[in-house]
Design a protein that fits this description.
The complex is a heterodimer of chains A (495) and B (64). Chain A has 495 residues and is an alpha+beta fold. Chain A is 40% helix and 16% strand. Chain A contains 14 helices and 18 strands. By secondary structure, chain B is mainly α. Chain B contains 3 helices and no strands. Classes of the chains: A alpha+beta (495), B mainly alpha (64).
């Protein structure tokens, strides 16, 4: 039986400080986060961080392990999220969610938090200076920053088995996960417009790196949970989505494919002959008609690969149900939307305007090309591309399209507003967030799998949270309501 | 839900039918075009000035 697909999204936002003599992105990122966090900041506890651990086993020789930058701003929010400076970007990691719809809400709440952060930080700047944030993955000049998904996976599944399924999965799902990009980068060949922001940056099939020679399947083995039972699959082959339908499909379909892979042997004849080349050729073809070569020598389109995955997923759902993927309420919705999307991609991808980012952006660009007679190399198109991702509500072209009613929303804005401050009820993020809301001064530090409380007497108390589903509202709401003090909470937890 | 009732991948003929159904009559097409024109006018107003310079100045450090 597949384990629940607890999931989350980490987004590194593009950031600029305009009007400053020294537009330092680390400083700008710190200002954003400090500006937002008005209550006392709770530090992140790094004890269990080990991003250089490799899922394939021992550390690989010559592999570049990312550094954990403990000196940078790093905080936990009452909604259970982590908000921090990563390298030279503000990064927002959603709290752990239990299904794709919950994660759409949490991810959108992240955008709202960044927008609020800009307003707060800009009040602290000199006149004429402004920090602006973009939810995209590339500067168009060969520099990329990531949007990573995370899924809880059963440790018992051999990693090689996951890799076999995930290579054709990540290559083909681009047809709905792509956020669209004008041009190409990183020596990836000529493209006028391509489906994915990220495809040009993948150079390996499998590996530990995330900043150099990026692999399609990332092997970082840092479960942030009981390592005997769980993996956290760290997905770096995805784009930053603004369209809620795109985020919903990206997470919902991947969760089902992972559950299916846990429960049964997925047929291996979907294996691609050259996955890295296929990643690019799929991305570089907005008609969705390009074919990729399979190991058996045959060729098919990305959409055809997706039809095969959907067929397997339907059969799996019939046999085993979708309990691990949000049940029929959410998992069933995913399957139906997935099918409608593939049908539309095959008939005419442009009918997905307002549902998928790459189509929505392309429609906008084509309208400008037609109205202004622009050539495809015109810088105005690159500007439209960039500004589509601007997080300022008044400048974001995506938000303009939402306001005009041409973009489909899946979640209620009231739910998004609530998720700015409140944790999801379904996971341990609830316990983390509620402790922080209730006793901000007593939470000395927190991370994904523990929280450290100052109970007024030595020593500090560390509460482990190695089970991602323990600490949900059902488990701990009464306990938190009854506890009068942090010391009382610790005593009740021990009894 | 029994397998045969489930919406499977539509046969080619059905898909042709769907395409015909969504083909907009000219009148509707005109209305859509005018709405699109209005939308582009709105976007013109918020679009950053000097596109070339603006795009050139957007440089990020690699992340992750």
């Amino acid at each position: 039986m597949a384990i629940p697909k607890v999931c989350g999204i980490e987004t590194e936002y593009g950031v600029v400080l305009r009007g400053a003599a020294d537009p330092n992105p680390v400083l700008a990122s710190s200002l954003l986060i400090n500006g937002y966090v008005e209550q006392r900041r709770v530090g992140w506890d790094f004890e269990d961080e080990s991003p250089d651990r490799d899922a394939r086993g021992a550390a690989r020789e010559g592999a570049m392990a990312p550094e954990v930058e403990t000196h940078l701003v790093n905080t936990v929010l009452t909604n259970g999220a982590r908000y921090y400076v990563d390298h030279a970007h503000p990064e927002y990691s959603t709290p752990e969610c239990l299904d794709a719809l919950e994660l759409v809400v949490a991810d959108k709440a992240g955008e709202r938090i960044l927008a609020r952060s800009m307003r707060a930080a800009n009040r602290l700047l000199d006149p004429g200076q402004e920090i602006v944030v973009y939810k995209n993955n590339s500067d168009g000049k060969g520099n990329s920053y990531g949007t990573h998904e995370n899924y809880l996976v059963d440790r018992a599944v051999p990693f090689a088995h996951l890799v076999r399924v995930l290579l054709p999965w990540f290559v083909s799902r681009q047809v709905f996960t792509g956020a669209g990009k004008v041009g190409s980068e990183n020596g990836a060949g000529v493209a006028r417009y391509q489906i994915s922001q990220r495809a040009d940056f993948f150079e390996e099939e499998v590996g530990l790196e995330t900043t150099l020679k990026r692999p399609i399947v990332n092997t970082r083995d840092e479960p942030h949970a009981d390592p005997q039972r769980y993996r956290r699959l760290h997905v770096i082959a995805g784009d930053a989505n603004l369209c809620e339908v795109a985020t919903f499909l990206k997470v919902g379909t991947t969760a089902i494919v992972l559950a299916m892979t846990e429960d049964e042997v997925v047929r291996s004849d979907l294996a691609l002959a050259t996955p890295v080349a296929a990643m690019r050729s799929v991305s570089h073809d907005p008609t969705c008609r390009a074919t990729v070569e399979l190991v058996d020598g045959s060729r098919c389109t990305a959409v055809e690969l997706q039809w095969e995955f959907l067929r397997l997923a339907r059969a799996y759902a019939d046999r085993s149900g979708l309990e691990a993927c949000g049940g029929t309420a959410v998992g069933g919705l995913v399957l139906d939307r997935w099918e409608r999307t593939l049908t539309a991609l095959e008939a005419d991808p442009m009918t997905l305007d307002g549902q998928l980012d790459w189509v929505t952006k392309l429609r906008l660009l084509e309208a400008y090309v037609a109205r202004d007679g622009l050539a495809w190399g015109d810088p105005k198109l690159a500007l439209l591309d960039l500004q589509y991702h601007d997080v300022r509500p008044e400048r974001s072209l995506y938000e303009r399209l939402v306001a005009a009613g041409t973009v489909e929303r899946l979640v209620d804005e009231d739910a998004v507003t609530a998720a700015i401050t409140d944790p999801p009820a379904s996971t341990r993020a609830y316990f983390r967030g509620r402790c922080l809301e209730r006793w901000p001064d007593a939470v000395v530090a927190a991370n994904w799998d523990s929280i450290i409380l100052d109970v007024g007497t030595d020593p500090l108390k560390r509460i482990p949270m190695m089970e991602p589903l323990r600490g949900s509202r059902v488990h701990v709401e009464a306990l938190l309501d009854q506890a009068r003090t942090p010391a009382d909470l610790v005593a009740r937890l021990a009894s | 839900m029994p397998e045969q009732q489930r919406k499977q991948r539509p046969a080619p003929r059905e898909r042709v039918g769907e395409e015909a159904a969504v083909a907009a009559p000219t009148e509707r097409g005109e209305k859509l075009k005018s709405e699109l024109d209005d939308l582009l006018d709105e976007i013109d107003e918020v679009l950053e000035e000097n596109a070339e310079e603006f795009v050139k100045s957007y440089v990020q450090k690699g992340g992750e």
